[in-house]
Each structure stands twice: as C-alpha cells, then as structure tokens.
Specification:
single chain; about 475 residues; alpha/beta; Rossmann fold; 2 domains; seven-stranded parallel β-sheet; six-stranded parallel β-sheet; 15 strands; about 45% helix; binds 2-acetamido-2-deoxy-beta-D-glucopyranose; UDP_glucos_trans; EC 2.4.1.-; Glycosyltransferase; UDP_glycos_trans_CS; quercetin 7-O-glucosyltransferase activity
C-alpha cells in the first residue's frame, strides 16, 4: 500500500486571480513527482480557449510534454456554457455551494474507480467550501490553498473573536485591534471590505462559511513568504499545518490561464526610456466609479508621463459609452498605450516601467515587488483594502493614491510624479529592493518557500500512507 503513488485532484475556482496561482501550484506539485489531475470549470476552459483563439482541449499539454504527469479535464458548474453568470451572482454562488459538489463527487468517484493504483488527495482553493464534503466522503487527505496574504487569512480565521469584541462589522469605526494572535496591530479601517459591510449577502455568508471549513483542512498552503509574515504564520501554525510557499510564478513553458486576450505592448515599451512608464491596472474583477477613471485620466494628462493602462470593457460601474473620457486616447497617442488586458508580469518587468498604479490584488503586489516596481495604491474591495496596509504601512514599498475621501487629478498627478522620480522615490526603491530579495531568496533551492514546499510534500506523503494503511 505504502508504495502507491500520490495523486492530487485539483478543482480550480473561477476567478482570474485564483486561477493563475492555482495553475502554478499544479505545476509545482507535479515538479515534485506528484501525479496531478487538474479540472477547470467548463465555462472557464471555454473562456481561456477563446481568449487564445485556440481549440486546445488540453491546457496542460506543454506541461506534460516537458515531462510532468499532469492530466487535464473540465467539470460543469451546472449551467449551460452561454449562461450569464455575472447577471445573478447570488444564484451562481448558491448553486456552486449546494449542487456543484455533486459534480466534483462524480469526478472523484470516476478517478478512484478508474485507477486505484494511486493514493488520491484533494487540493482546493480555500474558497471552495465544498471540499470538506468530498474529502470526508472519500476519506481524502485534503489541502486548502490560500491565494491572499496570511494576514488576511488570519483575520477571516478569527472572525468570531472579532465579532465578539464588536469590531466586525466595522460600521465606519476606526479602532486599533491588537488581540488577534500573530497580528500585532491593525486598524479596523484596514479590514477586508466584507468585514465593513453590515448587510450580509450570499457572498459574505459563503466566504465566512469557507473559513469554518478551512479549519478542518489537513494542510493549508499560502502564496506568501514566511520571512514577510513570520509572526502571523507562526500563530496560525499553532492551530494547523500552514505553509508559506510563495511567490508561485509560471514555469518556462507556456500554460494558458488568461480569461481575456492579452495585448502585447513589448515593442512600444522597449522604445521608452528606463523607468519612464507608469503601468495602471485595476485587475480582472472589480468595477470602478467613472469619476475615479476621469480623475486618473486627468492626472495622467497633467503629469505628462508615459503610461500603459489596462482598460477592461465593463470595468466602469454604470453608464454607456467608452470608459475613458472622449479624446483622451488621441491626446496621449504618442506617450500612452491603452490595452484591454495584458500579460502583467511581462509588462512590470520591462525596464521602461517605473511605477504601478494598482488596485492591490495580491498577485499584482507579488509581481510588482518581484520586478522591483514601487506602487501607488488604490484598493477597491475584498482583501485589497488590507493588502494596501501591507504595501504602504508595513513594507513601505508604495504610497496611497489619495489621502482623503475624494480623489482629484492634481493629487493623482503629484503621486505619479513622485513615484516616477527616481530621486523622490528613493526610499521606496530601497525598501522594495529588500522585499524583492526576500521573495527571490525564498524560492531558491534552500529558500524558505522551497523548503516549506518540500516539507509539505513529505508530510502529505506520510499522511496519505498512514490513512490508507488503516
Ligand atoms: C484572436 O482573433 C481575433 C479575431 O480574429 C484577433 O483580433 C486577435 O488578435 C486574436 N488573438 C490572439 C491572442 O491571437
Ligand atoms: C479534511 O479531511 C478531514 C479528515 O477526513 C475531514 O474531517 C475534513 O472535513 C476535511 N476538510 C476539508 C477542508 O476538506
Ligand atoms: C543548500 O543546502 C545544502 C545543505 O545544507 C548545501 O549542501 C547546499 O550547498 C545548499 N545549496 C545552495 C544552492 O545554497
């Protein structure tokens, strides 16, 4: 029994910011000699294929060609492919929570029956609250993968404590919280948006439920670096096996994981002087107030800097017409590029980029630090609010876009000029170099993330063997 090979069953979550590190995790597991079956939601598969103009049925073909034992399949979320999922999010979540597990069950049962020569275990995003049912039913060792910082994990983890003390819902108060194990001090202002909201929707309930579930997980993996969140991680580790294994970045071969077609601005960037270009992106998900877009456009006009701006169709909350002010693209034609989506790490690591105006998604932050690009922060919702604190207050590798309640183009221009001026942003650049080398060290052969990952793989192997020999 003990000689059976471990086989990870991985079912991915539907959001872009979760898909990217989850795919990288699959490759990382396979690179340690673990067999992987990876399932995307069917509609996610379709979206990725379409964005690549590809009829590819196996998104991991290149990974397998490079020698990794990764199998690929898709799984239905229960809706027809052309169903408009964003039109009724509550319906989708309720279905995902209540009915979708049956489809996962079918996949797991099929795998277990079709090849019993493996020891299977389950790897799911922490937001996949269904994992518990499946793991329990089949007695599978289970792993929960957290795509945000350990700080955010810990706050969700201690939701009940925060509620007892009356700090959640935040309800507009600004109070310092210093009693969460492993978190020395945080202002309630910096809590994730879901802790601020007083009215709980299906989404809130779902996420909070996911944190009841994660407490039962055999292992938790987090896309962070131990040295950067040592106290928080060591407090969490007293409760559960918790491994910092980040930053998880893509391998050398191609794996399609983008839900939107990526435009290339490489040639244009190469024609610009080093550090002269501001990269602006608010990520793949959030919508943003048109007023904010106008002030940022105004700030770009006033500052006169070069820029690459990711403007997703549909990123503005309301109103018809284009996202950008009329004539903006004409006026800035010789110094700006507007793209609907792009390969962000590639852009950030171009020598031409001198700053990143970001919504503070965790992947964006890791990529920006990795490429040594200081940030201007404009968080919109969810963990972005808390991540801003990490970037600006803890690591001091970024600044806030606006200090007050309201954003105006003069302040935007001032912040842009500050970050793009190598002299004025010298402190930020010094600090980012420290954090950057911490990230880099973590993923070297003897670095903390690499050692943690190896330790995790060893523990999983041991646990699988113990469980199957009983
Ligand atoms: C996909 O096809 C469309 C329409 O033919 C084209 O505009 C786009 O550039 C193509 N995208 C990729 C990634 O090849
Ligand atoms: C993990 O497995 C244990 C033991 O089977 C089970 O009790 C628990 O509910 C599972 N948790 C998750 C998150 O899958
Ligand atoms: C990693 O650590 C091992 C054991 O301590 C050592 O032999 C090896 O030289 C180290 N490798 C690197 C690249 O530092």
């Amino acid at each position: 029994m003990a000689s059976k090979k471990p086989h990870a069953i991985m079912v991915s979550f539907n959001l872009q910011g979760h898909i990217v590190p989850f795919v990288n995790l699959a490759i990382k597991l396979a690179s340690k000699g673990i067999t992987v079956t990876f399932a995307h939601l069917e509609f996610v598969h379709q979206q990725i294929s379409q964005s690549q103009n590809s009829t590819q049925t196996d998104l991991f073909a290149a990974a397998r060609a490079s020698g990794l034992d990764i199998h690929y399949t898709t799984i239905s979320d229960g809706f027809p492919l052309d169903h408009d999922r964003s039109a009724n999010i509550d319906e989708w979540i309720a279905n995902y929570r209540d009915r979708f597990p049956e489809n996962v069950d079918e996949l797991v049962r099929y795998l277990l029956q079709s090849d019993p020569s493996f020891n299977y275990f389950l790897v799911a995003d922490t937001f996949c609250a269904w994992s518990e049912k499946i793991a329990e039913k089949y007695g599978l060792v289970n792993v929960s993968f957290w795509t945000e910082p350990a700080l955010v994990f810990s706050l969700y983890y201690h939701l009940e404590l925060l509620r007892e003390k009356g700090h959640v819902p935040v309800n507009g108060r600004r109070e310092t919280v210093d009693y969460v194990p492993g978190i020395r001090s945080i202002n309630t202002r910096d809590f994730m948006s879901y802790f601020h909201d007083t009215e709980l929707e299906v989404l809130h309930e779902y996420i909070f439920q996911a944190f009841d579930v994660v407490k039962t997980a055999d292992f938790v993996l987090c896309n962070t670096v131990e040295e950067l969140e040592a106290e928080t991680i060591s407090a969490l580790r007293k409760k559960q096996p918790f491994y910092a294994i980040g930053p998880l970045f893509p391998p050398d071969f191609a794996v399609s994981n983008s839900l939107m077609p990526e435009a290339s601005s490489g040639e244009w960037l190469n024609s610009k002087p080093p550090g002269s270009v501001l990269y602006v992106s608010f990520g793949s998900l959030a919508t943003i107030d048109r007023r904010v877009i106008l002030e940022i456009a105004g700030g770009l006009l006033v500052s006169g800097v070069n820029f690459v701006w990711v403007v997703r169709p549909g990123m503005v909350e309301s109103g018809g017409g284009g996202v950008l002010p009329e004539g903006f693209e004409d006026v800035t034609r010789d110094r700006g590029v507007v793209v609907p989506w792009c390969s962000q790490k590639e852009v950030l690591c171009s020598r031409a980029i001198g700053g990143f105006l970001t919504h503070c998604g965790w992947n964006s932050i890791l990529e920006s630090v990795w490429c040594g690009v200081p940030m201007i922060c404009y968080p919109l919702f969810t963990d972005q609010i808390t991540n801003r604190k990490v970037v600006v207050d803890d690591w001091r590798v970024g600044i806030n876009l606006c200090e007050g309640e309201h954003i105006n183009k003069e302040e935007v221009a001032e912040k842009i000029e500050f970050v793009l001026s190598e002299k004025r942003s010298e402190e930020l650049r010094k600090e980012i170099e420290k954090v950057r080398s911490t990230l880099e060290d973590a993923v070297t052969v003897n670095g903390s993330s690499e050692r943690n990952f190896d330790g995790f793989v060893q523990q999983v192997r041991n646990k699988i063997c113990r469980r199957c020999s009983h």
